[in-house]
Amino acid sequence: MSIMSKLESNLPSEINVDPAEIEKFSALASRWWDPNSEFKPLHAINPLRLGWIQEMINPASPDLALQGKTVLDVGCGGGILAEAMAVAGGTVSGIDLAEKSLTVAKLHSLESGVKVKYESISAEALAIRESASFDVVTCMEMLEHVPDPASIVQACATLTKPGGWLFFSTINRNPKSFLFAIIGAEYVLKLLPKGTHSWEAFIKPSELADACRMADLQVQTLIGMTYNPFTEVYKLGSDSSVNYLMAVRKPD
Protein backbone atom coordinates (compact mmCIF):
# COMPACT_ATOMS: atom_id res chain seq x y z
CA MET A 1 0.00 0.00 0.00
CA SER A 2 1.44 3.41 -0.98
CA ILE A 3 1.95 6.28 1.46
CA MET A 4 -1.10 8.07 0.03
CA SER A 5 -3.26 4.97 0.16
CA LYS A 6 -2.47 4.68 3.84
CA LEU A 7 -3.18 8.34 4.42
CA GLU A 8 -6.56 8.11 2.75
CA SER A 9 -7.56 4.85 4.44
CA ASN A 10 -10.30 5.09 7.04
CA LEU A 11 -9.27 1.88 8.75
CA PRO A 12 -8.32 2.27 12.41
CA SER A 13 -4.59 1.87 12.98
CA GLU A 14 -2.64 0.28 15.80
CA ILE A 15 0.54 1.86 17.12
CA ASN A 16 2.59 2.83 14.08
CA VAL A 17 5.66 0.65 14.57
CA ASP A 18 7.23 -2.42 13.00
CA PRO A 19 8.52 -4.67 15.84
CA ALA A 20 11.18 -6.07 13.53
CA GLU A 21 12.54 -2.58 12.91
CA ILE A 22 12.63 -1.83 16.64
CA GLU A 23 14.48 -5.07 17.30
CA LYS A 24 16.92 -4.33 14.48
CA PHE A 25 18.00 -1.01 15.95
CA SER A 26 17.83 -2.23 19.54
CA ALA A 27 20.39 -4.90 18.71
CA LEU A 28 22.79 -2.16 17.60
CA ALA A 29 21.95 0.31 20.38
CA SER A 30 25.25 0.11 22.24
CA ARG A 31 27.12 1.26 19.11
CA TRP A 32 25.12 4.43 18.37
CA TRP A 33 27.92 6.79 19.39
CA ASP A 34 30.81 4.82 17.92
CA PRO A 35 31.76 6.82 14.78
CA ASN A 36 33.29 3.69 13.24
CA SER A 37 30.31 1.42 13.85
CA GLU A 38 27.26 0.65 11.75
CA PHE A 39 26.18 4.23 12.50
CA LYS A 40 29.25 5.75 10.84
CA PRO A 41 27.11 7.15 7.97
CA LEU A 42 24.88 9.02 10.43
CA HIS A 43 27.89 10.59 12.12
CA ALA A 44 29.26 11.57 8.72
CA ILE A 45 26.07 13.22 7.45
CA ASN A 46 25.05 14.85 10.72
CA PRO A 47 26.93 18.14 10.11
CA LEU A 48 25.36 18.33 6.64
CA ARG A 49 21.86 17.77 8.01
CA LEU A 50 22.27 20.27 10.82
CA GLY A 51 23.83 22.93 8.60
CA TRP A 52 21.05 22.59 6.03
CA ILE A 53 18.35 22.85 8.71
CA GLN A 54 19.95 25.99 10.10
CA GLU A 55 20.31 27.60 6.68
CA MET A 56 16.71 26.90 5.79
CA ILE A 57 15.41 28.45 9.01
CA ASN A 58 17.69 31.49 9.03
CA PRO A 59 19.74 32.00 5.84
CA ALA A 60 21.19 35.27 7.13
CA SER A 61 22.47 33.86 10.43
CA PRO A 62 22.42 30.04 10.35
CA ASP A 63 24.33 29.72 13.63
CA LEU A 64 21.47 31.51 15.37
CA ALA A 65 18.68 29.55 13.65
CA LEU A 66 17.86 27.26 16.56
CA GLN A 67 18.55 29.72 19.38
CA GLY A 68 15.49 29.87 21.63
CA LYS A 69 13.55 27.40 19.47
CA THR A 70 11.62 24.42 20.80
CA VAL A 71 12.75 21.43 18.73
CA LEU A 72 11.48 17.86 18.43
CA ASP A 73 13.42 15.02 16.83
CA VAL A 74 11.02 12.21 15.89
CA GLY A 75 12.74 8.83 15.74
CA CYS A 76 15.79 10.23 17.52
CA GLY A 77 17.56 6.91 17.99
CA GLY A 78 20.70 7.38 20.06
CA GLY A 79 20.44 11.17 19.90
CA ILE A 80 23.09 12.09 17.32
CA LEU A 81 21.04 14.84 15.65
CA ALA A 82 19.14 15.75 18.82
CA GLU A 83 22.33 16.57 20.72
CA ALA A 84 23.72 18.56 17.79
CA MET A 85 20.57 20.69 17.66
CA ALA A 86 20.78 21.25 21.42
CA VAL A 87 24.40 22.36 21.11
CA ALA A 88 23.22 24.76 18.40
CA GLY A 89 20.91 26.42 20.94
CA GLY A 90 17.61 24.58 20.65
CA THR A 91 15.49 23.33 23.54
CA VAL A 92 15.35 19.80 22.22
CA SER A 93 13.12 16.80 22.85
CA GLY A 94 13.69 13.41 21.24
CA ILE A 95 11.20 10.56 20.94
CA ASP A 96 11.65 6.96 19.86
CA LEU A 97 10.00 3.61 20.52
CA ALA A 98 13.29 1.68 20.71
CA GLU A 99 13.88 1.63 24.47
CA LYS A 100 17.51 0.49 24.22
CA SER A 101 18.37 3.30 21.84
CA LEU A 102 16.74 5.83 24.17
CA THR A 103 18.74 4.46 27.09
CA VAL A 104 21.93 5.05 25.13
CA ALA A 105 20.74 8.54 24.21
CA LYS A 106 20.02 9.41 27.84
CA LEU A 107 23.37 8.05 29.04
CA HIS A 108 25.27 9.96 26.38
CA SER A 109 23.41 13.14 27.27
CA LEU A 110 24.56 12.72 30.88
CA GLU A 111 28.14 12.09 29.77
CA SER A 112 28.29 14.96 27.30
CA GLY A 113 26.37 17.43 29.45
CA VAL A 114 24.16 18.29 26.46
CA LYS A 115 20.59 18.56 27.72
CA VAL A 116 17.94 16.75 25.67
CA LYS A 117 14.57 15.54 26.93
CA TYR A 118 14.04 11.96 25.76
CA GLU A 119 10.80 9.99 25.89
CA SER A 120 9.50 6.65 24.65
CA ILE A 121 6.29 7.67 22.93
CA SER A 122 4.89 7.55 19.42
CA ALA A 123 4.62 10.71 17.34
CA GLU A 124 0.87 10.18 17.12
CA ALA A 125 0.45 9.94 20.91
CA LEU A 126 2.64 12.98 21.51
CA ALA A 127 0.63 14.93 18.94
CA ILE A 128 -2.51 14.38 21.01
CA ARG A 129 -0.74 15.54 24.17
CA GLU A 130 1.37 18.40 22.83
CA SER A 131 -0.34 19.81 19.75
CA ALA A 132 1.35 22.88 18.20
CA SER A 133 4.19 22.85 20.73
CA PHE A 134 7.36 22.96 18.62
CA ASP A 135 9.00 25.56 16.42
CA VAL A 136 10.99 22.90 14.57
CA VAL A 137 10.26 19.20 14.01
CA THR A 138 12.74 16.83 12.40
CA CYS A 139 12.13 13.27 11.25
CA MET A 140 15.27 11.89 9.65
CA GLU A 141 15.89 8.44 8.22
CA MET A 142 12.74 7.12 9.88
CA LEU A 143 9.80 7.22 7.46
CA GLU A 144 11.08 4.22 5.51
CA HIS A 145 11.08 2.14 8.71
CA VAL A 146 7.42 2.52 9.80
CA PRO A 147 4.25 0.81 8.49
CA ASP A 148 2.38 4.09 7.95
CA PRO A 149 4.70 7.00 7.09
CA ALA A 150 1.79 9.31 6.24
CA SER A 151 0.58 9.01 9.82
CA ILE A 152 3.98 10.23 11.01
CA VAL A 153 3.82 13.18 8.63
CA GLN A 154 0.36 14.12 9.96
CA ALA A 155 1.53 13.79 13.57
CA CYS A 156 4.57 15.97 12.87
CA ALA A 157 2.28 18.58 11.33
CA THR A 158 0.06 18.54 14.42
CA LEU A 159 3.09 18.91 16.72
CA THR A 160 4.42 21.96 14.86
CA LYS A 161 3.46 25.51 15.76
CA PRO A 162 1.86 27.66 13.04
CA GLY A 163 4.69 29.11 10.99
CA GLY A 164 7.06 26.39 12.17
CA TRP A 165 9.48 24.27 10.17
CA LEU A 166 9.51 20.53 9.52
CA PHE A 167 12.37 18.54 8.03
CA PHE A 168 12.13 15.02 6.63
CA SER A 169 14.76 12.78 5.09
CA THR A 170 14.25 9.39 3.51
CA ILE A 171 15.14 7.31 0.44
CA ASN A 172 13.64 7.50 -3.05
CA ARG A 173 12.07 4.39 -4.58
CA ASN A 174 13.43 3.54 -8.02
CA PRO A 175 15.86 1.04 -9.59
CA LYS A 176 18.86 3.25 -8.79
CA SER A 177 18.00 3.40 -5.08
CA PHE A 178 17.77 -0.41 -4.99
CA LEU A 179 21.22 -0.63 -6.55
CA PHE A 180 22.84 2.09 -4.44
CA ALA A 181 21.01 2.04 -1.08
CA ILE A 182 20.64 -1.72 -0.74
CA ILE A 183 23.05 -3.62 -3.01
CA GLY A 184 25.80 -0.99 -2.83
CA ALA A 185 25.48 0.28 0.75
CA GLU A 186 24.58 -3.01 2.46
CA TYR A 187 26.27 -5.71 0.40
CA VAL A 188 29.18 -4.18 -1.53
CA LEU A 189 30.47 -1.22 0.52
CA LYS A 190 29.03 -2.61 3.77
CA LEU A 191 28.22 0.88 5.02
CA LEU A 192 25.09 -0.57 6.68
CA PRO A 193 24.16 -4.00 8.05
CA LYS A 194 22.42 -6.30 5.58
CA GLY A 195 18.66 -5.99 5.88
CA THR A 196 18.72 -2.39 7.14
CA HIS A 197 16.32 -1.29 4.41
CA SER A 198 13.43 -2.69 2.42
CA TRP A 199 13.17 -1.24 -1.10
CA GLU A 200 9.37 -1.52 -1.05
CA ALA A 201 9.28 0.85 1.95
CA PHE A 202 11.20 3.61 0.17
CA ILE A 203 9.21 6.76 -0.59
CA LYS A 204 9.20 8.82 -3.77
CA PRO A 205 9.53 12.59 -3.25
CA SER A 206 6.16 13.09 -4.96
CA GLU A 207 4.54 10.73 -2.45
CA LEU A 208 6.08 12.52 0.52
CA ALA A 209 5.08 15.89 -0.92
CA ASP A 210 1.50 14.67 -1.38
CA ALA A 211 1.41 13.44 2.22
CA CYS A 212 2.66 16.84 3.40
CA ARG A 213 -0.01 18.66 1.41
CA MET A 214 -2.68 16.33 2.79
CA ALA A 215 -1.46 17.38 6.25
CA ASP A 216 -1.89 21.06 5.24
CA LEU A 217 1.86 21.66 5.06
CA GLN A 218 3.70 23.71 2.45
CA VAL A 219 6.70 22.11 0.78
CA GLN A 220 9.57 24.61 0.59
CA THR A 221 12.41 22.74 -1.04
CA LEU A 222 13.89 19.36 -1.83
CA ILE A 223 17.60 18.55 -1.81
CA GLY A 224 19.48 15.35 -2.53
CA MET A 225 22.33 13.73 -0.65
CA THR A 226 25.01 11.72 -2.44
CA TYR A 227 27.99 9.62 -1.38
CA ASN A 228 31.30 9.17 -3.20
CA PRO A 229 32.68 5.73 -2.27
CA PHE A 230 36.17 6.67 -3.49
CA THR A 231 36.55 9.84 -1.40
CA GLU A 232 34.08 8.66 1.28
CA VAL A 233 32.50 12.11 1.17
CA TYR A 234 28.80 12.93 1.47
CA LYS A 235 27.42 16.10 -0.07
CA LEU A 236 24.12 17.88 -0.64
CA GLY A 237 23.03 18.78 -4.14
CA SER A 238 20.45 18.43 -6.86
CA ASP A 239 20.63 14.63 -7.18
CA SER A 240 17.66 13.29 -5.18
CA SER A 241 17.51 9.95 -6.98
CA VAL A 242 18.53 8.02 -3.85
CA ASN A 243 18.72 9.95 -0.57
CA TYR A 244 16.87 13.23 -0.18
CA LEU A 245 15.73 15.78 2.39
CA MET A 246 12.56 17.87 2.29
CA ALA A 247 11.93 21.16 4.07
CA VAL A 248 8.31 21.97 4.87
CA ARG A 249 6.46 24.75 6.70
CA LYS A 250 3.20 24.90 8.56
CA PRO A 251 1.14 27.93 7.51
CA ASP A 252 0.67 30.74 10.04
From TrEMBL:
Keywords: Methyltransferase, S-adenosyl-L-methionine, Transferase, Ubiquinone biosynthesis. GO terms for biological process: methylation. It catalyses: a 3-(all-trans-polyprenyl)benzene-1,2-diol + S-adenosyl-L-methionine = a 2-methoxy-6-(all-trans-polyprenyl)phenol + S-adenosyl-L-homocysteine + H(+); a 3-demethylubiquinol + S-adenosyl-L-methionine = a ubiquinol + S-adenosyl-L-homocysteine + H(+). S-adenosyl-L-methionine binds at residues 49, 75, 96, 140. GO terms for molecular function: 2-polyprenyl-6-hydroxyphenol methylase activity; 3-demethylubiquinol 3-O-methyltransferase activity. Pathway: Cofactor biosynthesis; ubiquinone biosynthesis. It holds the Pfam family Methyltransf_23. The keyword Transferase applies. The keyword S-adenosyl-L-methionine applies. Its EC number is 2.1.1.222, 2.1.1.64. It is an enzyme of class 2 (transferase). O-methyltransferase that catalyzes the 2 O-methylation steps in the ubiquinone biosynthetic pathway. Belongs to the methyltransferase superfamily. UbiG/COQ3 family. This is Ubiquinone biosynthesis O-methyltransferase. It comes from Orrella daihaiensis. The lineage of its organism: Bacteria, Pseudomonadati, Pseudomonadota, Betaproteobacteria, Burkholderiales.
